Give the backbone structure.
Amino acid sequence: MKSDIEISRETKLEHVQKIASNIGVTEDQLELYGRYKAKVNAAIDETRVAKSNLILVTAITPNKAGVGKTTTSVGLALGLNKIGKKAIVALREPSLGPCFGMKGGAAGGGYSQVLPMEDINLHFTGDFHAITCANNTLAALVDNYQYFNKGSQKALKQILWKRVLDVNDRSLRYIVSGLNGSTNGIPAETGFDITPASEIMAILCLSKNMEDLRERINNILLGYTFENQPFYVRDLKVAGAIVTLLKDAIKPNLVQTTENTPAFIHGGPFANIAHGCNSIVATKTAMMYGDYVVTEAGFGSDLGAEKFLNIKCRIAGLTPKVTVLVATSQALKLHGGVDEKKIKEPNLEGLTNGLKNLQRHIEILQSFGQSVVIGFNRFGFDTQEELSYIEKWCKEQGADFAINDGFAKGGDGAVSLAEKVIEVIEKRPSKPLKNTYELTDSVEEKLNKIVRTIYKGKGVILSKSARTQLKKINDMGFDKFPVCIAKTQYSFSDDASRLGVAEGFDITIENLVVNCGAGFIVAVAGEIMRMPGLPKEPQALHIDIVNGEIVGLS
């Protein structure tokens, strides 16, 4: 089969104006970025949003085999259009960090991609750069305030705000700034996060409009005064400048798929260190123009879907009609203890053991009241015996099952999955959303409910630092915020080596970070890093321009 980049180059793209016109977006609502990319500037009409059917795509616990969640999301949208439905896909933007690190791209795969793939995986329309610039401008303004108020009662005792870059760079996690004399600032221990972990990324993705964006920016907690009082952006009086840098970034991006299906790509918080969903604006814009909208949440259902349902849906007032849970035989066999070199071989025992992980994810989604369809990505080495066994097993768990060949066949290969999704929406749609916790619960209660209900662990252990932060959170009245646990994506526990279905564990919360502007509390579990490092052989070694064309992206 051809590579992703070969398939993307052979696809005949339509002008983005035609893509927009096909779904009812008018010319005056488009801001063109060349022939194939545009921003859509349309006010959200909640009446139209309410008539659309939202479909969430999530996955089992990720491992080295991968599952193809984005590919499934794109393929499902293609399949829905194949059976005569007006469907749109709404996804996150890829980060340059993973593109040049482990992944090499995040725009789907095979014949189920969003295009132009190279642009989407690289600088796209500049949203990540705008967020990086806004974040770092705010950091510079805080440092400037500190510099001109040093020695006075106006100076801050503690600065919380960090700089960000959209690269994987472990050397920037902990640094000292302001060295080499007083004219170069005030020496301070600080560090960098990756751009998807920036609170401004979360704010952009959770803002409903420009007014909401400004209010959330104003509410960012920057640090504490010497009187131990919180210091916000509104105290610095620079929200206008930060919003100005984001005036275009808040508008969702419209592109297309390998079969010219409309795709809104916007925002990109990671699900292991942030809330892992594309923007509310993009999702609702897609829902205004599509009868069916397919969107995804990052990593497994214990991370991305949990945050999608407990944070994003809560803020946006949304409930998916159905959730598609993606799995493959290879990934299940790895969770079942099969050697990585043998996961393509028939192994019913290993597969059966791996189904325990799938079962846990089904239970997670059902705890929210979600109807579940298992979207099984088929490979050529999968045996009919194994496929039949999995389908029978899924029915016993109360989950529907459909095979997806979208990677190899595009929309034609995703018709079965699309038909099953429509069947569930029409006959047994999800129940009203049942959140894992109430906002009135204490922070510790919220964390314990997630650990016990979602991860199936014993509970949380708060470090001394986390308990100190918890007291501040309670004193300042931020305890009614939802919580966003930052932890490894590879295990239900906070230990990445505990694959399959870890049990009998506690989750250790090392720190609590108040994202007051975004409106949630980040609970950092285990040794999770908000600035990733590069692998021994980064994908950057393979990315190049040859004869005027980019190679190495996938």
